[in-house]
Amino acid sequence: MSGWTVIFNLVLVIVLSVVAWFFAPKQDRTVWRSSIILFLAMAYLMWAITYLCQLHPLVVPRRSDLRPEYAE
């Protein structure tokens, strides 16, 4: 189920980018489009990397309060 969260948010960012493309103000349209779409893409990447790193950590935490015979 957690993999679907990343895909759902990607689709949401794509839809918002398309909306920003068509509804950008007439004045300085290129700057508005670039800024909004770049913001959405970078915010999604930052969120996705953080989310996936917490979902599958590289280092497994270990408890330090156990006796050695029970620590595995």
TrEMBL record:
<comment type="similarity">
    <text>Belongs to the V-ATPase e1/e2 subunit family.</text>
</comment>
<keyword id="KW-0406">Ion transport</keyword>
<dbReference type="GO" id="GO:0007035">
    <property type="term" value="P:vacuolar acidification"/>
</dbReference>
<keyword id="KW-1133">Transmembrane helix</keyword>
<protein>
    <submittedName>
        <fullName>H(+)-transporting V0 sector ATPase subunit E</fullName>
    </submittedName>
</protein>
<keyword id="KW-0472">Membrane</keyword>
<dbReference type="GO" id="GO:0000220">
    <property type="term" value="C:vacuolar proton-transporting V-type ATPase, V0 domain"/>
</dbReference>
<keyword id="KW-0375">Hydrogen ion transport</keyword>
<dbReference type="InterPro" id="IPR008389">
    <property type="entry name" value="ATPase_V0-cplx_e1/e2_su"/>
</dbReference>
<feature type="transmembrane region" description="Helical">
    <location>
        <begin position="36"/>
        <end position="59"/>
    </location>
</feature>
<feature type="transmembrane region" description="Helical">
    <location>
        <begin position="6"/>
        <end position="24"/>
    </location>
</feature>
<dbReference type="GO" id="GO:0046961">
    <property type="term" value="F:proton-transporting ATPase activity, rotational mechanism"/>
</dbReference>
<dbReference type="Pfam" id="PF05493">
    <property type="entry name" value="ATP_synt_H"/>
</dbReference>
<keyword id="KW-0813">Transport</keyword>
<dbReference type="GO" id="GO:0012505">
    <property type="term" value="C:endomembrane system"/>
</dbReference>
<keyword id="KW-0812">Transmembrane</keyword>
